[in-house]
Amino acid sequence: MYIKRDAEKLLKKFAAQYPVVTITGPRQSGKTTICQKTFPEKKYVSLEDIDHRDFAENDPRAFLSEYSGGVIIDEIQRVPTLLSYIQGIVDRNQQKGEFVLTGSSQFELSAGISQSLAGRTALLKLFPFSYTEVYKNSESHLSWLDNVLYTGFYPRIFKDELDPTDSLSAYIETYVERDVRMFSEIRNLKTFRTFLRLCAARTGQLLNYNSLSNDCGVSVPTIKSWVSILEQSYLIFLLEPFHSNIKKRLIKTPKIYFYDVGLCAYLNGAKKSEHISSLPNRGSLFENFIIAEMLKINYHNNLKYSFNFFRNKTGIEVDAILDTGVKLLPIEIKSAFTFNDSLSGNLEYFSQFHGNEKIGSVVYAGKSQKRTKYDVLNYEDYFKMLYKPI
Questions:
Q1: What is the CATH number assigned to the segment(s) 8-125?
Q2: Of 216, 232, 283, 364, which sees the most CB atoms within 10 A?
Q3: Enclosing H/E stretch for 237
Q4: Cα first-last separation, the chain
Q5: 234 CB contacts (<8 Å, ≥6 apart)?
Q6: How many angstroms separate the CA atoms of 275 and 371, rounded?
């Protein structure tokens, strides 16, 4: 069963405006499927296929002539030299939506696009399913949260009804054995796997290169290189701290999150949904879940919001600051099912600097409640709110 993606509308819009649309995102985030469902009339070719790849590398003009009139080219980063030939074709034809390209590597794609397709392509980032895409037709059950955190949102798990542990284990093996080798000559893959698990254990925390270096037994420059690899291959993202006129009192270190909470849970040792409740960082997993959902809804619907977190040098923190371009919306994220006033934590502290009449939102696992100073929202209700103009 095909699950309709929020990004379909944006994909169609870009194809009507640009000769090339480039879709990037993690492996197995559904890039191929959304392209084929949105553009069923276009031919399709994958450069993961060695015969197609050899043809494209050895005779790019002949290869592209096979797909005149519109084509979806999967994993374009495998033959980046094609981009300059595509540039010549789109400059000559001036046809909107002629090429739809996909890729799983930010580094290789961004370098090629900036050289060959600048101004000719729209960029769309596609991440795994959002919570709303998967569960919008389901009856809400507060008790299933741990299963959500355990399963994550990679499309294949839902499409093929796979066991999350088996699927995510295979995902990591493929990523480490193939993708990491493509990015860098990492000599000790065992140490890199340890590094990956240590990053997962630190989700929602400030990124501390020295701590990771000590725990992995490798140098700080190596850790920085490995973090960059995880970013470029869409496993993690870094949430930057909020800056304002009080920046002298703020920290400058980003926080680390995983694009998929299920993958993060797996790397933390969860092999069943029942394991989630016993994880010492379950609260951080819930925070990762909310932050990643905010990001997915933002990108897939082209909302153009920006996200940061607030933390001063005394440790007072607000989990997320959503900037709509018009106003700032501070958000505290709590995994509790029962609300009490202490969960609003530092919202009032943050509001003192910005004069908000309503000081923000608490997003948690319990039922939504009406409050005067701030919103108390179940995570499902918060996601629904994000889809509306704020």
A1: 3.40.50.300
A2: 364
A3: strand 236-239
A4: 33
A5: 24, 25, 26, 27, 29, 104, 106, 127, 259
A6: 34
